[in-house]
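User: what does the whole thing look like in 3D?
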Amino acid sequence: MISVTNSFTNSLIKFAKKNKNFVVLDADLSDDLDLQKFSNLYPSRFIQNGIAEQDMISMAGGIARMGLIPIVNSFASFLTARGNEQIYNNATEGSKIIYVSLYAGAIPAGAGKSHQSLRDISLLSNIPNFRIFQPYNSGETYEILKHCLGKNEKNNCAIRLSIGPAPDSSPKLPSNYKFEYGKGTQITKGKDLIIFSYGQTMICEAFKASQLLKKKNINLEIINMSCLNYFNKSWLREKIKNFKYLFFLDDHNFSGGMSDLLISFLTENHLTDKKVLKKFGFTNFPACGTYEEVLKFHKLDHVSLSNQIIKKLKR
Amino acid sequence: MKKKIYFFENSEFNKILKLKIDKFAKAEILAAICRLNTLSIIKRAGSGHLGTSFSAMDLFTWIKFFRFKTAKAELKNLNRNIFFSSKGHDAPALYSVLHAMNIISVKKILKLRRLKGLDGHPDVSIPGIEANTGSLGMGISKAKGFLWAKKHLKKKGNVVLIVGDGEFQEGQIFEALQTTAHQKLNDLIVIMDHNKIQSSQYVKKIIDLRNLKQKIKSFGWHVERCDGHDFKKMDKIFSKFLKIKNKPKFLIADTIKGKGVDFMEHTKVMKINKRYNWHAGAPDESNFQKAQSILLKKIEILQKKRKFNKLKITDITPKEVEKNNVEIH
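Assistant: Here's the predicted 3D structure for the full assembly of 644 residues, as structure tokens:
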């Protein structure tokens, strides 16, 4: 299985032949996205802007005003935080820009908190007309990029991408998988409780947690929510109607992530009556360490998750 | 008796443009009327930035009417000249020029800073506005984006940008100076409205820009400097700029904040005051009347000197006095 980052660039190249309307800007992080593959094929459509994120984002704004679609790449922690005002300013002009929030989430955790991005959803979701996505795997990466480049999507888009290979025990998307805007994908079928999550790291932890829970005869339904701030109401109503316990798992800070956005959407639409809700996310600065160490430290590894779920059910 | 607020509608500018006098003489008249209109719309709005509007007015006039013109019919043409101001708070001056060019309607311009009127800072929903600016430091980056796209799409037209001097304290400016030269976006023309004052103090007192010319040059730009109120000098430099192909171009235009109304000109204000007090906010009634009569007198002198018929003047005094907006720097 190829990584989401590789899939992103391969997809970009696939679309570039027919769609001559997009160009790519990079703040010297093309190595991590393998963007040279694109820039070698389309040098005139690639702008190396150096480590100058604010300048790169505003430049993208000017390019977008001329009718092109800029795809702007940097690490999520730098792009969405340092350049947040520039992103906001571009958005006020109503033109469409696609931001690549590379290295989204806590993993890999070796670089530490300067690089791990756990604030970017909250930083972008309060900008009007903004859609935030995180593809679960390579196939979904293709679908999401296709959606973002499509004419029907008029909003600014951010695509969160994990760095690194998918974890070994990653579950597959269902064979009939189809990307549907605002809807999630069922990874496992459950009957007692349901968990909403996204991204390769957390979906995998949820999956492993579901296997532990199964031994205790608890069936956890896992939903991959690749649209992080836009939700389909009727689909959600149908999805949760048989569940009392709703869980939410973010690869983001505890506040301001997909969980908060989804819970507020459900509450607004009176879909949380008589439900028991619990969310999981990072409650402090992310720790530095290995994959397992860090998730365990933050009690977001599959063992901690299944224990906390059991505790919640007993209450 | 209530004092009047006067305004010259766009029809009157057309009369000036048709006069058989040289373009520099025309520019002087157009700028004088635009200053009067700028003062009036700010007074009506109850707030707005006079000082910087007046310092940039001669630059705007020359660029928009004569040097890098974009007619109403071309506003969506990708080959058009693209001009905007990075500092953005000089919007009342730009709006006045765009009204004079029949791009912004009289109905709109009288609704400065009002709902469904003209935003306090530039917004692309307004005809003739190319970029949303006002949050300082973003302009050069945006302008080079426009220019890059023009080249990529093989479109014609210049990209010309005004920057402030105060905003040179923003770091993004220096990112952009560096990348513009490196990316060989050499057709870019940036003009600094160097009026020496930010909010209320000398730039050199807040954070000194030191040797500006040398600084910008060292980033790989061709730099010129001239009086930003002298049309002939700036025109000569623009001609020179269009011939230089190996570097992006930067003009440091020395201007006077509040230019055109002597008691608002920083060179006079700072001799008697510790702070410059015409950066933001509408003048009170007596200062407004004083400024208005100075600007009307200037127009009258030019009318006699250039021998044109008296222009039609419109009374735009609001029926009710607007509750003044809060002064925001």
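In plain terms: Strands of chain B lie at 6-7, 82-85, 159-164, 189-194, 197-198, 201-202, 222-227, 249-254, 314-315. Chain B has one domain: 6-315.
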